[in-house]
Specification:
Radius of gyration of chain A: 21 Å
Oligomer: heterodimer
Structural class of chain A: alpha/beta
CATH class of the largest domain in chain A: Alpha Beta
Distance between the termini of chain A: 43 Å
Number of domains of chain A: 2
Number of domains of chain B: 1
Distance between the termini of chain B: 45 Å
Strand order of the largest sheet of chain B: 6-7-8-3-9-10-12-11
Strand order of the largest sheet of chain A: 6-7-8-3-9-10-12-11
Order of helices and strands of chain A: EEEHEEHEHHHHHEHEHEEHHHEE
CATH superfamily of the largest domain in chain A: P-loop containing nucleotide triphosphate hydrolases
Number of strands of chain A: 12
Number of helices of chain B: 11
Largest interface: A-B, 63 and 62 residues
Low-confidence stretches of chain B: none
Shape of chain A: globular
CATH class of chain B: Alpha Beta
CATH topology of chain B: Rossmann fold
Strand content of chain B: 15-25%
Order of helices and strands of chain B: EEEHEEHEHHHEHEHEEHHHEEH
Largest sheet of chain A: 8 strands, mixed
Mean pLDDT of chain B: 90
Shape of chain B: globular
CATH architecture of the largest domain in chain A: 3-Layer(aba) Sandwich
Mean pLDDT of chain A: 89
CATH architecture of chain B: 3-Layer(aba) Sandwich
C-alpha cells in the first residue's frame, strides 16, 4: 500500500466581506497518493480552486481566513509553517501550474531566467550549470528549439508554449507534489491534448503526485486515477476514477455525469440538473445539494451528511444512498 | 425552393496597419470564400479553434462586420446589398446571442425594458400589448415573471443567457446566430440552455447557426457541421457522417483531441501536433499542411478546393482515400448511472 504524500483534513476556509462570513470551503479532506493523479472536480464556485490555493497558502488574508483543518505534507502541517518555510516549499518540493500562464510568468524576465532563478533558489544551481539545466527542462516539456527559446520573453510564445514553460518551471526542482489548477482550460482542444499527454508522460517518468483541479470530466477521465467531487464547498463523493464514472452514487454526481454532452452518444436531450448552486452567503444547515435534490427529506435539510464508505474505496456524503433503495414507492417521506 | 440562409464566397479580411503613417502592413484573412446553405428549422454548427474565423463569420452574416466580399441571402433578400434602412428592417429576422450576454445587455435596463424595446421599435407590440408579449417571452425562456423587474447583474450566468435568448426571440426571427452560447456555463446549466434552444427550435421553427469549439455540444444540437481552419471551411457534413467517418485530417485531429468522459476510452492522440499558424502569415498550399500527417509536395504547393466527396464537402487532396471509419463508437451509458438517474427523474416528476 502506498502512503499519501499530501493529506487534507477538514479544511475550512471563510471569506470575510462587509461583515458577512462566506463559508467557501467546508470540511474538505482527501489523500493524494504517491505517483497518483487526483482530480478535484466541480462546477464554478464549488471551492476547488480555493482549496488548492489554501494548500499552497496563496490566499490573501484578509479577506480569506483558514478557519480550521490540516494540510499534512512530509509529516508537517503546511498551515503551521512560517512564511519563509512556505516560500521554500513552493517551487521547491511543491510545484504549481495555473490556468493562464501569462499572469503567472513575469513578463519582464526571459523564460530561461525565471527557471534559473528557481533553480538557484531551491537547488543551488548557478551559472552555466543552471542555464544548461533550464534548457534541458524546456526540452523535457518538448518546447521546440529550447536553446533559442530559453532567451525568449513570455509574450513571444503562444499559449500552449507558455504553458509548457510553466510546467518546466513547476518541475524544475523535482517536486514531490504538483498542483495544476485548470492547466488546459484556456487552451484550444488540440493544444490541450498535447499538454495532457505531456503531463501524463512526465508523471510516469518522474512519479510526481499530481493534484489536478478541473471542471472538465473529460480531462478527469483521461488523466486521473482518483476523483474527489465537490459541491458548494463540500466533498460529496470520492473514489477511483472507474467507480466514479461507471457507478456514481451521489445524486449530484449522477446528475453531473448525465448532464455532460458526449461525442460518443446519440443525439437526444441532455439531462439538466434543475436550479443552480446556492450562493456561499446562503446558510445551509443540512446537505448543500438538498434544494436541488428530488430525494431530499427533512433529515437532508437539517443534518449535514458526512462521508461514509459505500463500497471499498468509494465514499459519499448522502443520507439517501444507495439511491436505488429509495425507489419510486418510498422516496418521499 | 430557396434555402433560408445562403452564403456565396463570403469573405472578411481585416487590414493590419503599422507605424506612424498607418501603412497597411498586411491582411488578416479572417474568413475567406465561405459558401453554405441552411434550411428553416435546422441547425448548422460552425466549429474550429480560436482564430479560425468562426465568430467573424457569424458577425459577417448579420453584417455586424461588413463583409469584404461575397453574398449573404436570407430567403430571397440579398443582405449584402441592403442600405442602412433596409438592414435595420432585415435585422428583425436575424438575431444573435453571445457567449456572455452580460456584455450585450444594458445594465441600466430591467429585463422587461430590454424585451420591450425591440418589440416597440419594430412595431411588433403596442403599448397596450407589450406587457403581455414580454411576459410570453419570459415564460418561453423558462424565467419567472418576477424576473422581469430585475437588472442583468442580479442574474446567474444561465439566467442571463435565458434573458439573451428571450431578447433575440422578441422580434420573431427566422435565424439566430448563436456565438458560443454555452461555453461560459457550467455543465449542469449548459444542459438546461442546450435543451432550451432545442425546444424553442421545435416550437418556433427558427434556423440556428451554432458557433462552438465544443464538439460534444455540437453533436447534440446540430444536424450539419462545418469545420473551419484559418478562415476557410475544410469539411462540411451531416453530424452523423462527420463523427463516424471524418474525411479531413483536421476534423480527425479535433475529434481525437477532445477529451471523452469515459476512463475506458481508447486513446490515440498521436495525431495532434503543432498549433494554428497566424492568420497574417498563411502557409502555402493547404493551410493545414504543416500540421498534417498526410501532407506531401502537392499539399505544400496547391490549395485543395472544397469539393463534394460522398455525402460531404471536403477540402483535402486525400479526401477520397482518407476514410476513417467508426471513429467515435457510440457508447451506452453505464447501467448504474441510468438506474439512478431514473430514480431521480421519477422522484422529480412526483414532486410536481
Amino acid at each position: 500500500m502506498v502512503d499519501p504524500v499530501l493529506s487534507l483534513r477538514d479544511l475550512d476556509v471563510r471569506f470575510n466581506s462587509d461583515g458577512h462570513q462566506l463559508r467557501v470551503v467546508n470540511g474538505v479532506g482527501f489523500d493524494l497518493m504517491a505517483g497518483q493523479t487526483l482530480g478535484l472536480v466541480g462546477e464554478s464556485g464549488c471551492g476547488k480552486s480555493v482549496t488548492s490555493l489554501a494548500i499552497m497558502r496563496l490566499l490573501a488574508s484578509p479577506p480569506a481566513e483558514i478557519a480550521g483543518g490540516e494540510v499534512i505534507f512530509e509529516n508537517r502541517d503546511l498551515l503551521k509553517l512560517s512564511k519563509r518555510e512556505m516560500r521554500e516549499m513552493r517551487g521547491g518540493r511543491m510545484g504549481m501550474i495555473f490556468q493562464e500562464p501569462m499572469t503567472s510568468l513575469n513578463p519582464v524576465y526571459t523564460c530561461g531566467s525565471q527557471i534559473i532563478e528557481s533553480l538557484r533558489r531551491h537547488s543551488g544551481l548557478t551559472g552555466k550549470a543552471a542555464r544548461e539545466r533550464a534548457i534541458e527542462l524546456l526540452d523535457t516539456v518538448r518546447l521546440p528549439s529550447p536553446e533559442k527559446r530559453v532567451d525568449d520573453y513570455p509574450h513571444q510564445l503562444s499559449g500552449g508554449q507558455r504553458q509548457r514553460v510553466m510546467i518546466a518551471l513547476a518541475l524544475a526542482n523535482d517536486p514531490t507534489v504538483l498542483i495544476a489548477d485548470e492547466p488546459t482550460t484556456a487552451l484550444d482542444v488540440t493544444i490541450q491534448a498535447q499538454i495532457l499527454d505531456l503531463l501524463r508522460d512526465l508523471q510516469e517518468r518522474t512519479g510526481t503526485a499530481v493534484l489536478l483541479i478541473t471542471h472538465d470530466l473529460g480531462v478527469v477521465a483521461e488523466t486521473c486515477q482518483a476523483v474527489v467531487v465537490m459541491y458548494a464547498g463540500t466533498v460529496v463523493e470520492r473514489g477511483e476514477v472507474g467507480a466514479i464514472f461507471a457507478d456514481p452514487q451521489h445524486p449530484y454526481t449522477v446528475g453531473l455525469m448525465a448532464a455532460v454532452p458526449r461525442m460518443d452518444a446519440l443525439q437526444g436531450r441532455l439531462t439538466a440538473i434543475p436550479g443552480s448552486v446556492p450562493p456561499p452567503w446562503e446558510r445551509v444547515v443540512g446537505c448543500r445539494f438538498a434544494p436541488r435534490c428530488p430525494l431530499a427529506d427533512d433529515r437532508c435539510r437539517n443534518e449535514r451528511p458526512t462521508l461514509r464508505e459505500i463500497a471499498p474505496g468509494h465514499e459519499i456524503a448522502c443520507w439517501k444512498a444507495p439511491i436505488e433503495g429509495v425507489s419510486a414507492t418510498g422516496g418521499q417521506s | 425552393m430557396t434555402a433560408l440562409l445562403r452564403t456565396e464566397g463570403l469573405t472578411k479580411h481585416f487590414p493590419v496597419r503599422r507605424g506612424t503613417l498607418r501603412r497597411q502592413a498586411g491582411t488578416v484573412q479572417a474568413v475567406t470564400d465561405v459558401s453554405f446553405q441552411l434550411e428553416a428549422n435546422e441547425t448548422l454548427a460552425i466549429v474550429g479553434e480560436s482564430g479560425c474565423g468562426k465568430s467573424t463569420l457569424g458577425r459577417a452574416l448579420l453584417r455586424l462586420h461588413e463583409p469584404s466580399g461575397g453574398k449573404v441571402w436570407l430567403k430571397d433578400m440579398d443582405i449584402t446589398a441592403l442600405n442602412r434602412q433596409g438592414l435595420r428592417e432585415a435585422r428583425k429576422h436575424m438575431q444573435i446571442i453571445f457567449q456572455d450576454p452580460f456584455g450585450s445587455l444594458n445594465p441600466r435596463m430591467t429585463v422587461r425594458e430590454t424585451l420591450s424595446e425591440p418589440l416597440l421599435l419594430h412595431g411588433l407590440a403596442t403599448s397596450a400589448t407589450v406587457r403581455a408579449e414580454a411576459d410570453r417571452l419570459i415564460d418561453l425562456c423558462g424565467l419567472a415573471r418576477w424576473h422581469a423587474e430585475r437588472y442583468p447583474h442580479e442574474f446567474s450566468g444561465g439566467q442571463r443567457q435565458r434573458v439573451g435568448i428571450a431578447r433575440a426571440l422578441a422580434t420573431r426571427p427566422m435565424l439566430i446566430v448563436c456565438d458560443e452560447p454555452v461555453s461560459a456555463l457550467d455543465v449542469s446549466v449548459q444542459a438546461q440552455i442546450v435543451n432550451l434552444l432545442q425546444d424553442l427550435q421545435r416550437e418556433l421553427g427558427m434556423a440556428y447557426v451554432f458557433i462552438s469549439h465544443d464538439l460534444a455540444v455540437v453533436r447534440h444540437i446540430a444536424r450539419k457541421v462545418a469545420v473551419m481552419y484559418l478562415g476557410r471551411i475544410v469539411e462540411e457534413a451531416t453530424t452523423e457522417a462527420l463523427f463516424t467517418a471524418p474525411r479531413h485530417p483536421y476534423t480527425r485531429m479535433l475529434i481525437d483531441s477532445a477529451p471523452r468522459p469515459d476512463p475506458a476510452a481508447l486513446r490515440h492522440k498521436a495525431s495532434a501536433k503543432g498549433g494554428t499558424p497566424s492568420a497574417l502569415a498563411m502557409p502555402s498550399g493547404c493551410a493545414f499542411h504543416p500540421r498534417c500527417v498526410l501532407a506531401d509536395d502537392r499539399c505544400r504547393a496547391i490549395r485543395p478546393e472544397l469539393r463534394q466527396v460522398g455525402q460531404s464537402r471536403v477540402a483535402c487532396h486525400f479526401a477520397e482515400a482518407a476514410i476513417s471509419d467508426n471513429v467515435v463508437p457510440i457508447k451506452a451509458d453505464s447501467p448504474a448511472l441510468m438506474r439512478r438517474l431514473a430514480v431521480l427523474e421519477q422522484a422529480r416528476a412526483g414532486q410536481k
